[in-house]
Amino acid sequence: MNIEITIAESVAAAIKALYGQEITTDKIQLQKTRKEFEGDYTLVVFPFLSMSRKRPEETAQEIGEALAAAQPLVASFNVVKGFLNIVIAHSYWMDLLRAIDSTEKWGVKEADENSPLVMVEYSSPNTNKPLHLGHIRNNLLGYALSNIIAANGNRVVKTNIVNDRGIHICKSMLAWQKWGNGETPASSGKKGDHLIGDYYVAFDKHYKAELSELMANGMSKEEAEAASPLMAEAREMLVKWEAGDSDVRQLWETMNGWVYEGFDETYRKLGVSFDKIYYESDTYLVGKETVLGGLEKGVFYRRDDESVWADLSGDGLDEKLLLRSDGTSVYMTQDIGTAQLRFRDYPIDKMVYVVGNEQNYHFQVLSLLLDKLGFSWGKGLVHFSYGMVELPEGKMKSREGTVVDADDLMEEMIATARETSEELGGKLNDLSAEEVADINRIIGLGALKYFMLKVDARKNMLFNPKESIDFNGNTGPFIQYTYARTRSIERKAAEAGVTVDAALVPATVSEKECSIIRMLNEFPAVIRQAGTDYSPSGIANYAYELAKEYNQFYHDFSILREEDAAAKSFRILLTRNVGKVIKTAMNLLGIEVPERM
Known about the structure:
The chain is α/β, with parallel strands linked by helices.
């Protein structure tokens, strides 16, 4: 039931009857009536004055009378200058609420076997360090975006590309060889990804010390970097890895295995998952082969030092390195190979990359190169570009060990939720310690996720853990608390033997109640818009506005103590559907909602 479409069609019919003019519904401007005026929807009549050849007030009056006569859902209307304010009959709101109540997944469009297939890539970690705050935003955006795309009736494949090869991986491996003394996750008690991250930091520490010594002996910074024995060893290890050296490969497999176990633990705690994982160690050879094929066809060219380049100057860009002089691959080469494998593995209709905005140029080039190589889907790739996360202290640097670790941050959020719950006191006293711990986990992670997702993804954001867990305002816990409140009301109604009868019609329905039903009715359109705009924040802010509207209703109206049976049944029914829609919205964002708080 789409009330806006119904009204628009009725307006078009009225204009034809009144003025003999055909008009399409997309030319009809409907908006919510401003709070200071009576009405639910407002029609802007100025576009019709050339048809009516009358003053705005007279035109609005004529259209209003025609609507009231022809359309039962219009209870009354009023005219303010060139605006027609339409009041919807409360019986219609009741019908609409029943329709919402009878639809289990209100707003969600289910996919079938013929629906478009969309692949969404997110996470893309390096196996030389643990996941950090920036990865959290990436994973949360990617997972939420996948859910939203699926809720728009698409089949979705969630995929991850693991950067498990390259010079940065060799740095961790070399540092462990030199200074690790056989340390393992089991012997150290550390998660594997944390352990390897420590050696990445150790490499940088020794490398910087080496540069300082060389520069103290008279070299410039550039000369010292070129002469660094440590970096030369790392490059030599990369060449050996690509040549299939058995010792290097064995060390690589062992250390990567430690990292994968650590990653899996972090993903589980964060609540994200993947349908297919690709590894650059598998995809880079496909990319390398494709680049060499492009070289033979004259798409690319080779320089005197044997490196392979693409000249994109004719496309308004610059030249792009694809293979180094020693034959090793760069990220672009790997991404070419990964794209090929994906389109070979799946009949993808759309490919979406969730990658930070510092890679905007990279994906512009990737799309162009794939197109030049003859892949028809090259220009159709979508880069979901998002801004960086910063802290009050400033930017993070992995190799210097100044990142905010994802595991530590999640534990901190859960601990803060526990402290906040204890301060509020008493509400969970009858639950077991395990149940309380799970609620604190849901609240802590919900605060983190919502804070990350409520911001327009394209913008840089400042993450403030304390601000995110406030139980008031535009936060995850506020919305979660509203959901828990709806569930509490339903439980108490059931305990009191109150029967909810959707057929009961109260004598009156207040403006606040109509406003909530109107908001529930908007949820399908919110999901559609979030899918069109690739905007999880649209879902987040809708959930907040709905929670805020319901809480105002809760404070102003009696529900369980209402004496009129029809009004009580209606308000419990309204409460039930607010809870249902909040839960659906939050689940689309990957956020759990607790039954109690």
